[in-house]
Amino acid sequence: MVESRLVGPVRIVGVGLLGTSVGLGLRNRGIETILADASPTNLSIAIDYGAGRAARDGDQPQLIVVCVPPDVTAEIVARELDAYPNAIVTDVASVKLAPLAELRERGADVSRYIGSHPMAGRERGGPLSGRADLFIGRPWVVAAHGGISYQQANAIDDLILDLGAVLIEMSPEDHDRGVALVSHVPQVISTILGRQLANASNSALNLAGQGVRDMTRLAASDADLWVQILGANAEPVRDILIAYRDDLDRFIDALADPTAPGARRKVAEEMIGGNAGVARLPGKHGQDRQFSSMIVMIDDTPGQLARLLHEIGEIGVNLEDLRLEHSPGAEIGLVEISVLPEVVARLTDELAARGWRIAG
Ligand SMILES: NC(=O)C1=CN([C@@H]2O[C@H](COP(=O)(O)OP(=O)(O)OC[C@H]3O[C@@H](n4cnc5c(N)ncnc54)[C@H](O)[C@@H]3O)[C@@H](O)[C@H]2O)C=CC1
Ligand SMILES: O=C(O)C(=O)Cc1ccc(O)cc1
Known about the structure:
Shape: globular
Pfam families: PDH_C, PDH_N
EC number: 1.3.1.12
Protein name: Prephenate dehydrogenase
CATH superfamily of the largest domain: NAD(P)-binding Rossmann-like Domain
Strand content: 15-25%
Family: Belongs to the prephenate/arogenate dehydrogenase family.
Enzyme class: oxidoreductase
Structural class: alpha/beta
Bound molecules: 1,4-dihydronicotinamide adenine dinucleotide, 3-(4-hydroxy-phenyl)pyruvic acid
Helix content: 40-55%
Number of domains: 3
């Protein structure tokens, strides 16, 4: 078992996709986890899956992670702060300003609370979708505020590093504007595109290739959750959608008469603008687009990276690119390797069989 930074126990409230994944990841590191959920069914599934045990009288959690829908996040965080006066509390809701504002309105003791947000998830919620490796190599924002000192937030940093994620500090305002651009607006646009398919003919749908599937993956997301996320971050999302409407209008105008002087240039300029934007995305959807990437966790000890590279050579796979990230303070390294898409499955299986920990 890998050594952990957290001491525990960690109490997890809400054991759907996020809560079960946190529980499974911490249990893999030997950390005691206590689970709670308003749904008895979800609670027993998460326990059966090995994400932790049920709560008992006298539990003294070091840290509480609230993983409930955004609308009820502040209410549950406030309740947990009251019930466990020695614990630090965080939440994982996809928006950060609204829960903090509501906690302040409720007069909660925010000196023991910092909101956070892992940029990792799936379209399907519920405990059955939980995965121990969901957060490995993913950004996890800590949205600090003036009411808590850095030292008190140590347990939240340890949680993030123990789960193999990459800690990023941001203000709640910057966070909400950032996720509006990279998560919430892409969700809306994917949904709109998905709706266009609802009444399409079967003969058109039968032609669907990978492009439309990539673009509409998010359209399968849970409506209940997204009504809450978009409602809680409406202003930044709206601002970007208004700019997007202008972009759409330019495209529509350019296509009104594609043979008119300058029309082709206008379309080309839009395409080149898109190329430039997507090239700025870090990681596998950006610079390394023509290759597939995977992340291998290595212990931060001498010889580990060399052994990994040697074994990839033994497996007979050519490495196209490599990036090494140290999780600040954690004794692990995250090696992002890029290879040809057709060898990913074999390389993943063979490295896993040799005992390497792989994440996505
Ligand atoms: N789904 C995703 O991809 C991501 C979601 N998030 C955030 O994580 C949080 C949880 O999302 P998911 O795990 O996807 O949802 P989910 O629907 O899979 O799980 C939510 C769980 O909370 C429980 N719950 C609801 N109200 C409760 C209450 N009052 N008290 C106790 N338990 C309650 C539900 O029974 C359910 O088990 C949300 O705030 C969401 O914004 C963050 C990153 C990614
Ligand atoms: O599936 C994806 O690519 C996502 O972006 C999932 C996701 C959904 C909600 C979040 O708050 C964070 C991540």
